[in-house]
Automatic annotation (TrEMBL):
Organism of origin: Rhodanobacter panaciterrae
Short name of one Pfam family: PqiA
PANTHER family found in the cross-reference section: INTERMEMBRANE TRANSPORT PROTEIN PQIA (PTHR30462:SF3), INTERMEMBRANE TRANSPORT PROTEIN PQIB-RELATED (PTHR30462)
Presence of keyword Thylakoid: no
Lineage: superkingdom: Bacteria
Main location: membrane
Keyword Membrane: yes
Keywords: Cell inner membrane, Cell membrane, Membrane, Transmembrane, Transmembrane helix
Protein name per its UniProtKB record: Paraquat-inducible protein A
């Protein structure tokens, strides 16, 4: 048994909107009929976000499926007087490196490849371990969620990097740059991973079997 009682054991519930903590008696925290309203802001109160696992898994899987065409399909077309070239994220990174912009290539690779993959792995780990009621590294998993949530505020950087890519790649005399379907899939991936992070309830990390505490 944990030395620190949970809020549910003390009959407390916190508003996820304004942060107010009140005393409440909710027989079934996932039953919409038992919803309470926050006396300060009027938001519905839940001991745990309703259907958190279901929503987070659905959004995460959808984001991963969209991430595949985001990397396979070209994200932009550059046209010069000599040729027309369609570029995916990876080919854009390679082109930046070859053209003498390794710093920008690293930024693009990190923001567009490394960060999304880390978000997929992190959220997947949090979901699986929480659903199994694992007591493994709970403080570290809570910190991991806060890190994912923090990165979420900067997720649109991925899209901005794509914009920088279209502006800074130089193929001789550049006359035209236009976005292609890949950038739409990439933007949708960013939005869905942000929603997945918001749907996950970090309090679920601390639920589970008492023997794991």
């Amino acid at each position: 048994m944990s030395a620190f009682p949970r809020a549910a054991e003390l009959g407390l519930i916190g508003c996820h909107v304004c942060g107010l903590v009140i005393s409440a008696d909710m027989p079934d925290p996932d039953d919409a009929a038992d919803e309470l309203a926050c006396p300060r802001c009027g938001s519905a109160l839940h001991r745990r976000k309703p259907y958190s696992y279901m929503r987070t898994w659905a959004l995460l899987i959808a984001a991963f499926l969209l991430y595949i065409p985001a990397n396979v399909l070209p994200i932009m077309r550059t046209a010069s007087l000599n040729d027309i070239d369609d570029n995916t994220i990876i080919s854009g990174v390679v082109e930046l490196w070859v053209k003498g912009s390794p710093d920008l290539a690293i930024i693009v690779f990190t923001a567009s490849i490394v960060v999304p993959m880390l978000k997929f792995l992190s959220l997947g780990t949090l979901l699986l371990s929480s659903q199994r009621g694992s007591g493994w590294a709970r403080p570290q998993r809570a910190k991991l969620y806060r890190l994912v949530e923090f990165i979420g505020y900067w997720s649109m950087l991925d899209v901005f990097v794509v914009a920088l890519l279209t502006a800074l790649v130089r193929f001789g005399l550049l006359s035209l740059v236009e976005p292609l379907p890949g950038v739409i899939f990439f933007g949708l991936t960013v939005v869905l991973t942000m929603l997945a992070s918001m749907s996950f309830d970090p309090r679920l990390i601390w639920d589970g079997r008492d023997s794991d505490d």
